[in-house]
Amino acid sequence: MSDRTVKVPQGLEITSNNQSTLKVQGFTVVESCTRTRGKQGSMFLDDHLLLFVLEGIYKIHFGNQTYIVRKNEMVLLQRAIVIHYEKSGEPNKDYSLEYMMFFLKDELLKEFIKMSNIKFTQPSELVPVLIHPVNVRLQKYIESIKPYFNESEKIEDSLVRIKLLELLFDIASEKESMMQQLLQLKQQVRSNLSMIIEENIMNPVSIKDLAYLSGRSLSSFKRDFQSIYNMPPSKWIQQRRLEKAKELLTYTAMSVTDVCFTTGFENATHFSKVFKDYFGCPPSSLKQELS
Q: Which residues belong to any copy of the HTH araC/xylS-type domain (predicted)?
C-alpha cells in the first residue's frame, strides 16, 4: 500500500490507549505516549506545529534533509508543508516514546503579538524546520499542562487558550531565535508561483495553502495563477492530478484507493466521480480493463 499523507491536526487518529487531545476553539494540543520500535508516516500540516519530545526519538524528513529531535528538544514546523516522520522509542526503556504537539493557528500568533509588543526583526533566513533544546522552564510548562488531558471535558476553552499564550511567552523569554522564526511565519516571502505549484501538486493542499506558501493573498494568488496558466487554479490542479492518476492506474499495480490519496485527493468517492467526468469511465473500470 502507498504511503497516505494525513492532514493534521484534523486527520490525527485518536486512540484511548496512547494518545489524548485538548481541542478548543479550533486549537489543538496532542499528547502521545506509546511503545514502538519504529513507526513511519507522512503529515500535511494545516497549522504551525511545535513538537516537544519527552522520551524517545522523532525523525523528520523534509525535502532532502533529515532532522532528529531527541529527548528534551523541540522542533518548530511551519504550516502548509508535507513532512515524513519516523518515531522510535528508547531501547533501554522498553521502547517508550512520549511527545506533545501544539498546533498554532495564525489567529493565536496575532493575539500574542498584540499582547507581547515584541519587536520584530527579520531573521537572516526563514527555515521550515527549526530544532532547539528545551530548558527547565519549558519542561515545567509541559508538566503543568499534562493534568489537563485527564479531564479535558471539564477544562474551559479560555483556559487552554491562556496556556497556549503562556507557552509563547515562555519561548519568547528564552528562545529569541525561535520566537523570531515563529513571528516570521506571518511574513511569508513572495515565492516563485510555478515552483510552489509543481512542488505541491500531489499533496493534499488547498488553494489557500498554496497562496500562503507563495507569499500571496488568496486573491493575488488566483490572479497571478490565471495570468500564468490561463485557467483557474482549482480546475488546472484537478486536471493535473487526474492525468497523473490515470498514469499510475495504467502503469503501476497501485489500487484505486492508493492512487486517490497519492495524487492529492482526500475522498475516494469524489475522486471516482471527477475521474469519470473527465475521462468518461470510473477508475475502477479502467483498472479492470487493464487487468
A: 191-289
Which contacts qualify for 141-149: CB closer than 8 Å, 24 or more apart?
141/166, 141/167, 141/170, 142/52, 142/54, 142/100, 145/29, 145/100, 146/31, 148/22, 149/20, 149/21, 149/22, 149/31
**Is the confidence at residue 27, as pLDDT, over 90?**
no
By mean pLDDT, which of 56-70, 116-130, 133-147, 194-208 is the weakest?
Answer: 116-130
* Residue in the structure block whose three cell numbers are 493534521: 8
Question: Where are the domains positioned within the chain?
Answer: 5-184, 193-290
Domain 193-290 top-level CATH class: mainly alpha
Fold of 5-184: Jelly Rolls (2.60.120)
121 contacts 176 by C-beta, under 8 angstroms: no
Q: What is the pLDDT of residues 167-191, one digit of tens each?
A: 999 888 876 677 777 776 665 667 7
Residue type at 105? K
